[in-house]
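re the bet — no i am not wrong, look at it urself. input seq straight from the record:
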Amino acid sequence: MARLSWSRFWALMLLMNVGPFGGGARLGWASTQVAKSPQRIVSCSLATDEFLMELFKPASYHRIVALSPLALHPVYSNLRQQDIPAHLAPSSAKAVCHENIEALLEIKPDMVLLAAYSSPLIARRLGQAGISTYTAPAPRTLGDIEQTIKDLGVALGEIPASEELLSKFKGERATIKSLVVPPSLQGRRIIHVFGDGAVSGSQTLFDSLAAEISIVNQASRHGLKGWSKHSIETLLALNPEILITAKEDSESLGAVTARLKNIPGFALLPALKGEETGSGSIIALPERELGSVSHHILKGVRTLKQTLIDWELKKLPYKKG
């Protein structure tokens, strides 16, 4: 059975269409339900774990009472042991957010940060108990991530910190945009593939990232939308020159290639025969970078753009100056 990557998991959760404030207005929710800065915060998703540890200074760590079970995941998380306060050791990151609502209530939070994939029942039960919630929406664009940074600043009473993070995020976006892409790269047939063979079409986070780094998503160019698997005929019609995918840190490019070839139809793609024919290539980035939905995603965006530029420059014919 194909491994379901974290980025693919987020893509599927988008279909739930869960808004950050239970369907209400963004800032209207924050101003009416958060009378003061929350003092007992529980994070129920990896993205909110990462945002919390960036927004809070050490002097405020005592306000965090639990992080998600994925906070220190070796494949998906951008956090490391040294980033986590001692009282939030992995043993405290219980799966209370998605398995046991009573256990969540027992730790007496006054703010619970949920994910788009969290059951609406959890937010409803917490609301009945007088506990504020914020649901981080699954982003489709980097602009969505910027909005989440703003919203969290309001919800957590950390507006100056959120403004500082937002400024850094926008500055890094500007730096990435300044990297010059060879014009020939914009004509390349590039697709993004999940571990189970689904391809990112239009109206997806990858599609917006492609525009961000001045490349064209071949699947979007062919009119494919969302995230889905396709027939062998469709894959051959896409005929990608470059496949972009996520990998675990320990995976070699050969292992990634073998894994993709095991997906029906993919073994026929020239891009998977690149080492043999020189006609294609695979770009595999760490899952924590390519699959991130927090501010850490820019690590992957920068690496991806630079890798594509380097790939293209090697393909261009040498000209004496």
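see?? The chain has a mean pLDDT of 83. told u. also The first strand starts at residue 41 and ends at 43. so pay up
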